[in-house]
Amino acid sequence: MTVLIAILVVGLISLAFGALLGFASVKFKVEGDPLAEQIDAILPQTQCGQCGYPGCKPYADAVANGEAINKCAPGGDDTIKKIADLMGVEPIAMDEAHETDNTPKVAFIIEEDCIGCTKCIQACPVDAIIGTTKQMHTIIADECTGCDLCVAPCPVDCIEMRPIPQTTRNWQWDLANIPVTQID
Amino acid sequence: METVIERIEQGRFWQFHGGIHPPEMKFLTTNKPIRTVSLPQRLVLPIQQHIGEAGELIVKPGDYVLKGQPLTKTTVPLAVPIHAPTSGTIASIENHIIAHPSGLNEMSVILMPDGEDRWRERHIVENYSQLDKNTLVEKIANAGIAGMGGAGFPTHIKVNTKAKIDFLIINAAECEPYITADDLLMREHAASVIEGIKILDKILEPAFILIGIEDNKPEAIDALNHEIKQFDKIKLCVVPTKYPTGGEKQLIKILTGKEVPSGVLPSSLGIVMQNVGTCHAIAEAVISDTPLIKRVVTVTGQALEKPQNVWALLGTPIEHLLQECQYPQQQKRHIIMGGPMMGFSLPNTQVPVVKTTNCILAPSEKEIPDANQEIECIRCGQCAEVCPAQLLPQELQWHAKAKDSEQLTKLNLFDCIECGACAYVCPSHIPLVHYYRVSKAEIRQQKLLDIKAEKAKQRFEARKARLERDKKAREEKHKKAAEARRARMNSGTEEANKEKSAVAAALARVQAKKAQQSGVQANTTNDDKKSQVADAIARAKAKKAGQSAPNGDAGDDKKQQVAAAIARAKAKKLAAKEQANDDSAEENINAVETKPTSAQDDKKARVAAAVARAKAKKLAAQEQPSDVGTDDTGKSPETISSTAEDAKKARIAAAVAKAKAKKLAANTESDDQRTEGEAEASTKDKDDVMAEAIVEPPQETSTSTQDDKKARIAAAVAKAKAKKLAANTGSDDQRTEGEAEASTKDKAEVTAEAVVEPMQETSTSAQDDKKARIAAAVAKAKAKKQAANADTDVKQVEGEAKASTKDKTNVTAEADVEAAGETSTSAQDDKKARIAAAVAKAKAKKLAEKAQKDNQTS
Amino acid sequence: MTDYLLLLIGTVLVNNFVLVKFLGLCPFMGVSSKVETAIGMSFATTFVMTLASLLSYLVDTYLLEPLSLQYLTTMTFILVIAVVVQFTEMVVHKTSANLYRSLGIFLPLITSNCAVLGVALLNTYEKHNFLESIIYGFSAALGFSLVLVMFSAMREKLANADVPKPFKGSAIAMITAGLMSLAFMGFTGLVKL
């Protein structure tokens, strides 16, 4: 008898709680994933597709749904660290398949070689190339994300990636070169 | 407000947090007057010497410029022009190393002085108080004056504030050790400095003017006091010596007790601060129309034998100044531009003097020893005690080392004025300021990158949206065009018919199809074309039934159907031709008796294509009647040949799993005509299959001729098949060439050609009946071919049929049937060829049929 | 009233669940690397502990005791706690996806946070009445939160500090926790025996 009562009581409690949870799951249903937006904000937006997704936003969505966080080559380790922070996971090393030299570069069109085929214009994810059919094209260096995507389509190989030249505006202090100067 | 002034009058000031008292070392230069140095060999003038934008060059190499002549002009507000410091020739404009810790090159004008020092024309202003504010600001802007205290902010921007100004503070503190440039300037040019202050007073109209000066410059204080006696508005505030009193925020705090919040300009508190050097430059610019071309530079340090303040022309290489002050050549220690606390080491001595250069320090080994080894922080907290910005240098340092920019920003790194007080007191010799500089640069860089990323994102999204829009617009356009075409087609004109077949040709993914028709000779022409494209999907099959029932006179009926049905690909082809029997033909003959009257060509082409993915079908049909042939009736006759009936049916059913192309072409001609029809259908499967069917029946009899040709090619392929049928008929001195090529491309190629050339030259009725059926059904790879020729009454029929099938290998099937009939009576050619090839995986079948008939008797 | 106040202060400081009773050490070490996360965890735990002690009191008093089913206490309490945690998880997920992410596995692990079960069981052993139970649960959570936030703030600073190499990471965290515990033991002096 006592056993029956015990079972009954526990069963009743469980039932009540089950009902509560059921109600809560309907009431607090989560829609959308703001996480993807936040990840997207961290990504460098080069739209290079090196991660295997067509652009940064798709990769952000994928990461939010469990894709590895170490596939953004242009972002490098910094980006991985930031995503790891956001997601509350441990930063991992850059995926070897995606490891590239991520010194910032801009595309440069060797203008005398350009035949005006517009292929690079179509490839550019950020519309940073201007030009039209049979006319020489050129790159808006400020808008170029250095994604590399215009290099392959060029039939005459007149596009090359050049490192961004150092000027006093983007120069960074180099600790090793600063003499510590103190007077005694 | 009053309290501030009261306190100042009582000589009581506020204090800023922290601060240090480093050895002043000003005695090296403070007792010597400002010297004018000789003209250097050349002057190097970086076109940007201030914060903001560079001006636009208005000189070119080879130009001769006069002293004070502008070399750049300003196009944007933040630009400041530069001027030729002396007369001479522009040697070149090139990248030259500049006064920047990076040692990077920037665009500079190289001026070779001619030694004459000839001025451009100057307009002395006797009484500047009559000028209005804007003119004054413009004069300052044109003189190229940028803050001479060190930052180099364009002065005309700073003085052109809209805010109401309570305090104009003149910064004469000069708190950094060694530097005495402002001190000497005030001593020697106090009047000019005060004139400059008055000009600023006129522009800014402040309530009070405070001159902040440290008490270690008694002679300068005396000189200024002497000058400001008559001006109550100007208060000379002698503040205790403490580094870094000369910092903007610190001096404001000392004099007014106000603290400038982080990220806020002093002008929003009603305060503007100018350096004494700037005041002097303003006076020079406004009164004597002298742009900023020289400045006082303290050349000091114990490594020099004659440290002294000098009037240095802008652009003078440091090397020249050091020589003037007798810098021993064997000394190879670093030279510091700026003071020992905030200056930076120069990469080499070719760096020119710029507007912000106030000191060149050539320290001896003893003065500034080489970097001490940095050791761990011992958490003594002295740095926090001396920080004038009340930051936590030690925590900043940890985070800077860890590159934790978020924490650094939280700890207000950007309020650091880089005074170096923390590093000065650090017992562990940690170069704190350098860590901050590095971090600041990195954070700034990161911000730029973030902005760029945001921009790239927007552009990327804008592009995506644009592409999407374009796509929609294109689809819309296509839809409209298609509708227009359909409307035109329905109008039923001749062109419409042509178009119809063209449309049929260009469906889906397509392949090449061709239909040619040539019709020569015709009095009356009746073209009737019908093409139907039926799409049957999935497992559907296409069937075709074509009938031609020639009545009385002459009728050509051609139907072609191409039906493609896929369910893994089946292709069936059926070609049926019906011809009126001899009876009807004879009837015709009887009716008309000799010569043919009318000819009717009726061709129907049906192309049914059902494609899972893409198919192309094409149908072309042509009809042409004969010479005399008038109309349906055919009663008008009397001429030559009787009736010709051409009935051709071709069915091509091709079903491809992936992509197929079918083409059918049929031509007919009657009465001395020549018709060439070529239909090419090529199918590509995984294999190549070529099927050719050529039928050439020439008939030369005069009577009614019936050509009946049927060609059936049924190819059922697991994946891809191609079928082609071509049928031609000709009667009465005609030559008909029909080539039908069907090529379907799948993973392989199947080409089928069918050429039928019927020539009939006899006058009697001739019936050509040709049927060709090619059915290819192979389990794996089979090719079958049938060729049948039928000759009647003095005919020669040559039939060749070759069928070759290609499976995983190549199989080609050719069927040539040549039938030639030379008798005058009716001739019937019956050819049937069937090739059935069905392949489980990939097969190709080809059928070719040729038939020729020659009848040349009559 | 004074009793309740004493109970509160006593539970928060003197008998701190983490540093004195050594309950709930898992989240204490696990979610203390960032202040933000720690604060989120604190709120979640406070919510769970208060609600759990309330519910467990009700279940115990009105179901188990009358039916003499005290031997089921632990089992039913765990059931209660699990439900409350699930409920909390849903609420957190709905209201702050970020917090939900950063809490990660520790959110459902509140279920196994011994402090929660501890507070419910201690309520029964100490024969707390309804109000006392709630206050006890709440103040236990408050003590937990206080220590957790303080500890995480310290760890955040430690992260970039030049800690000697052998002590980097968890080692220095343990030492810090030990020192904190020592400090909290000092609160015992508040009570005059």
Give the strand tally of chain C: 0
The oligomeric state is: heterotrimer
Q: What portion of residues of chain C belong to β-strands?
A: under 5%
Contiguous low-pLDDT stretches of chain B (5 residues minimum) are: 513-858
Shape of chain C: globular
Shape of chain B: globular
- Helical fraction of chain C equals over 70%
Q: Determine the N-to-C terminus distance of chain C.
A: 21 Å
The overall pLDDT average of chain C reads: 87
SSE-based structural type of chain C: mainly alpha
InterPro entries (chain A): 4Fe-4S_dom (IPR007202), 4Fe4S_Fe-S-bd (IPR017896), 4Fe4S_Fe_S_CS (IPR017900), Elect_transpt_cplx_RnfB/RsxB (IPR010207), RnfB/RsxB_Proteobac (IPR016463), RnfB_subfamily (IPR050294)
Cofactor (chain A): [4Fe-4S] cluster
Domain 4Fe-4S (chain A): 31-89
GO molecular function (chain A): 4 iron, 4 sulfur cluster binding; electron transfer activity; metal ion binding
Write a brief structural summary:
The complex is a heterotrimer of chains A (184), B (858) and C (193). Chain A is mainly alpha-helical.
Tell me what the structure shows:
- The complex is a heterotrimer of chains A (184), B (858) and C (193).
- With 184 residues, chain A is mostly helical.
- Among the domains of chain A are: 65 residues, 3-methyladenine DNA Glycosylase II, Chain A, domain 3 (Orthogonal Bundle); 63 residues, 2-Layer Sandwich (Alpha-Beta Plaits).
- Chain A has 5 helices and 4 strands.
- In chain A, strands 1-4 form a two-stranded antiparallel sheet.
- The relative contact order of chain A is 0.12.
- Chain B is built from 16 helices and 34 strands.
- In chain B, a hairpin with a 7-residue loop joins strand 6 and strand 7.
- The longest helix of chain B has 59 residues.
- Chain B starts with a helix and ends in a 19-residue tail after the last strand.
- Chain C is mostly helical and 193 residues long.
- Chain C has one domain.
- In chain C, 74% of the residues lie in helices and 0% in strands.
- Chain C is built from 9 helices and no strands.
- In chain C, helix 1 runs parallel beside helix 8, helix 3 runs parallel beside helix 7 and helix 4 crosses helix 5.
- Chain C is globular.
- The two termini of chain C are 21 Å apart.
- At the A-B interface, loops of A face strand 15 and helix 14 of B.
Question: What descriptive keywords fit this protein?
Answer:
heterotrimer, A: 184 residues, mainly alpha, 3-methyladenine DNA Glycosylase II, Chain A, domain 3, Alpha-Beta Plaits, two-stranded antiparallel ribbon, two-stranded antiparallel sheet, 5 helices, 33% helix, elongated, disordered C terminus, B: 858 residues, alpha/beta, Rossmann fold, OB fold (Dihydrolipoamide Acetyltransferase, E2P), Fumarate Reductase Iron-sulfur Protein, Chain B, domain 2, 8-stranded mixed sheet, 7-stranded parallel sheet, 16 helices, 23% helix, globular
